[in-house]
Amino acid sequence: MRIERHDLTSTGAGTHRGAGSPTPSRRVPAPRAATVLPAPRGGMPRPGHSAPAHRAARQGAQPHRRPPHLAEAFDPRDNAIGVLRLALVAVVAVAHGVQIAAGRAPVIGSAGVGELAVDALFVLSGFLAARSYLRLGSLRRFAWHRFLRIVPGFWACLLLTALVVAPLVALLSGRPLLPLLTGPDSAASYLGANALLSIQQPGIAGLPAAGHEPGVLTGPLTTLAAGALCCALLAALGALGLLRRRIRLVAGLTGGLWVLTALAAAGFPLLASGAALRLPLVFLLGALAWLLARHIPVSGVLAAACVAALSAGTHLLPDYRALAAPALAYLLLWLAVRLPLRSSPSWDASYGLYLYHWPVQQVLVLLGATSLTLPGFLAFSLGVALLLAGASWALVERPALAGRGAAWVEFHLPGTARPQPQPHIRRQEPAAAPARRARPPRRTGESARTRLARARSGEYVGRHAAPQPPDA
């Protein structure tokens, strides 16, 4: 907009004054700045208008934003691992229920559904066990925590099976109760043979005699010994310092197990079968994920690729782990971080459900619960097993876990205890000595070079020039 400048005086009506009187000046208002209207939502400014600087910056090329790492995305107090574990144990229970009631095991391609779920549980166990060892920093404390988490609930399940389930199965089968006490496979021998987690006697006096899984009262408990051995392997690696300073060796060990699994799947004769390598491999994959959490991105694209790898491995290979074992581990940890579902940390029924679903299903088969159709039988057996799992958590597992902080675990003999650092006590630093007062420079009226030369020759005494002898 062009503004014409006019004269400051005017002779029009109402502005003329007499001679000698000053003529006031009339200010011309400054031109207004053009109003800048915001650009439309399409991103381009309207014709004749300019877009604001901040909006123009937003409309520019956005910088590439990297996905967060697993160490950044995983919150130990806010994650979906509890929900995942309960869901996976429920999948194991459903697979076993189909096997007990219908005599067939559900499969996906070449992999059993229950087998996949157990592998997933071992991945999560390895992840949590590695975190627990590094957080505790003590081999004895780690072993004590693992003992309290596994053994008390297992012993309670053995007692309940020997004293309640076996007599009930004998009564429902029309068998006498005396062989349960005096036979070669009695309840007492059942308790003694299986007390150390290794299932040496799966049943009591051949019970149950009918059904699709005769003579087995402790089907899923056979994996508990493998879990304990995996924890012992992790503790040995930690005692050697490999979990903190030599992570590459742990990665090499895991990669070696993966290669051996692939060779076993390809038919090469090995000292260890693929079944023996299965659970240590997935356990170490979970532990390695925690050790390398700062280098593992949490990406939905990678999770989708892992789903594709799992599908290919289960449908194209006799052992999916030869191709997709790392994919299973990554997918589980991605779900643990990204799923919005959360479980209460004060209530964990997953372990109890894993322990009790098999004997509950065996008893329900003898009671004729299979007449409810297969989905009804599975739902009913899950409900009863969940009740027992809740009782196990409230009466056995949670009271046992309350003893994790026992002081005797770190007991040392007199004279052998090592001093523990106390980072909360601040060391008292010695007081600094007062700074010495700098001596003022000599004022002799000479240049610095001359002053230095005379100082070296000893012509100065203190701050004054020494008297010189007269010339000869």
TrEMBL record:
This protein's record includes keyword Nucleotide-binding: no
Transmembrane regions: 83-102, 108-130, 150-172, 224-243, 250-269, 323-341, 377-396
Region span, Disordered: 1-71, 415-472
Key words, A-Z: Membrane, Transmembrane, Transmembrane helix
Protein name per the record: Peptidoglycan/LPS O-acetylase OafA/YrhL
Organism this protein belongs to: Kineococcus xinjiangensis
